[in-house]
Amino acid sequence: IETRAVMGGGQYATLKAFEDIKDSLPFSLKGIDSDNDQAFINYHLKRFCDTHKIQFTRGRPYKKDDNAHIEQKNWTHVIKILGYIRYDSEEALELMNDLYCNELHWFQNFFQPSVKLFKKVRIGSKLKRIYDTPKTPFRRVCECKDADPEKVARLKKLFLSLYPFELSQSIDKKLDQIYGVATKKLKFQRTSLAEFSKKEIALSLSSYG
Questions:
Q1: 37-52 pLDDT, tens per residue?
Q2: Strand partners, 114
Q3: Nearest of 75, 111, 117, 116 to residue 200 by alpha carbon
Q4: Among residues 162, 177, 202, which one has the least CA distance to residue 82?
Q5: Is residue 117 a contact partner of residue 139, using CB atoms and an 8 Å limit?
Q6: DSSP letter at 131?
């Protein structure tokens, strides 16, 4: 999981964010699938994809379901954390990307398991969805044959140096700083990452022995 904040959704700023994400991934970027926003549908991003031989696809106009796998992360990885508050300063942008690239990035990738749909089975008129075993993004990368061995080795070393409860407290402190520079504060009840279930973290850590 890689997240970046961009000021105003400009085309050039969006391109720079993609370049940063590409360099941060522990595997090669194979494809980009976007909606029809002009921040994505432009020659800057097309040239970037052509240069690096990245497949570029987009959803159909007025078909929100085409972006289901992206939209489902908006709540858990952005809104639930930062809320519906307006941020429009360079200071806020810098603080958000500092959080996205460090503590929040480590917490989501190392300690938050997710499931993937394995297959669908139709039983009469009902459709049963079967999912795989919950795994963290980090573990999935470790099992990926196409991952960069050097980057994976660095990730393993980093993982051993992290403690999830201290990490969540650090995230909350940085979030308080970000809220402090918000342009307009709206009433929004967020869930502190310090309240993350001890049981869920224990289950996550147990998979690594």
A1: 899 999 999 999 999 9
A2: 135
A3: 111
A4: 177
A5: no
A6: E
